[in-house]
Write a structure and sequence with these properties.
The chain has 292 residues and is α/β, with parallel strands linked by helices. It folds into 2 domains: 215 residues, 3-Layer(aba) Sandwich (Rossmann fold), CATH 3.40.50; 60 residues, Helicase, Ruva Protein, domain 3, CATH 1.10.8. It contains 12 helices and 9 strands. The strands form 2 sheets. It has a 7-stranded mixed beta sheet, with helices on both faces. It binds S-adenosylmethionine (SAM). S-adenosylmethionine binds next to β1, α3 and β3.
């Protein structure tokens, strides 16, 4: 085994006697001509120890259903498979398919690769209820995919049991932000009103091939039962209006939203406050009244 984990050499469990040894990830990239495409948001992770740590964030994966977006050359995919997950992976770049087919052979029955656009794939239909989502997301569709998973029906929980997702640091900060800061806005509220969201790991840009311009972080979300009587569409409209003019007082930013100023009064929120000072729970309380 290489002394340098960034070489992407196999870790001990992958070299199990009953499992053929896989080539290092750098070799896979060279063999299959996987020059990184900027348009596809390709920044690959090759450090197997780092990848194992990411795959460990959701907890034990043995025999658990897992959905991965963008396996690329297969680094995170290998880590999920080593951990024993039953994985469905969706990849848009057809150049990656031969490398992923090799993984299907080495981990028989554990991996199914879908060639296509994750924006068009019904993850729930593919992995079933209780699935974990784990991905080093392409930056151009990462937020849209997250919002899709957060907007799924909650009965009383969503179909997914955890989301473990790599984002650019700035997006990660917006997901976990608390009131009062510049990062706090719609994404924080949509992420936190019925999930716990935390930054599980910061990842230096040098860990990627090629390195992106900015740092990254893995965000871990676990769902909570949804607050009763609150419809997502009302929370969305409320936060869109409130943060549409985030520097203005609520009495100004919400005046075009029917019933919103009355709802503020019922909840006891001073209309002179600005959106960035209003907690997730306060937004939920206002949205509950608007949902009636
Ligand atoms: N998982 C690999 C890793 O960690 O090294 C690659 C991560 S790279 C940041 C993002 C991956 O998503 C690329 O393999 C890219 O081809 C793929 N991708 C980009 N857009 C996609 C889409 N709409 N649907 C599915 N995969 C996509």
């Amino acid at each position: 085994m290489s002394a340098d984990p960034a070489d992407g050499d196999a870790v001990t469990s992958e070299a199990a006697p009953d499992r053929p040894k896989l080539p290092p990830l750098r070799e896979v990239i060279a063999t299959h001509g996987l020059a990184a495409s900027k348009a596809l948001g390709q920044n690959f992770l090759l450090d197997e120890q780092l990848l194992d740590r990411i795959a460990a964030i959701p907890g034990p994966l043995k025999d658990q259903p897992v959905f991965e977006v963008g396996p690329g050359p297969g680094g995170l995919t290998r880590a999920i498979l080593r951990a024993g997950g039953n994985l469905v992976a969706v990849e848009r770049d057809r150049r990656c398919l031969p490398a992923l087919a090799e993984l299907e052979t080495v981990f028989p029955g554990q991996l199914r690769v879908i060639s296509g656009d994750a924006m068009e794939v019904d993850a729930r239909a593919q992995v079933g209820d209780g699935g974990h989502v784990i991905a080093n997301l392409p930056y151009n569709v990462g937020t849209a995919l997250l919002i899709g998973w957060l907007s799924t029906s909650w009965e009383p929980l969503p179909w997914w049991s955890t989301l473990t997702l790599m984002f650019q640091m700035e997006v990660a900060e917006r997901i976990v932000a608390k009131p009062g800061g510049d990062h706090y806005g719609r994404l924080a509220i949509l992420s936190q009103w019925r999930s716990d969201a935390r930054i599980a790991m910061k990842v230096h840009r040098s860990a990627f091939t090629p390195p992106p311009k900015v740092m990254s972080a893995v965000v871990h979300l676990t769902p909570k039962p949804a607050p009763e009587g609150v419809q997502l569409k009302h929370l969305e409209r409320l936060t869109a209006a409130a943060f549409g003019q985030r520097r203005k007082m609520l009495r100004q930013s919400l005046k075009g939203l029917p019933g919103a100023l009355d709802a503020l009064a019922v909840v006891g929120i001073d209309p002179q406050r600005r959106a960035e000072t209003v907690s997730v729970e306060e937004f939920v309380a206002v949205a509950r009244i608007l949902s009636q």
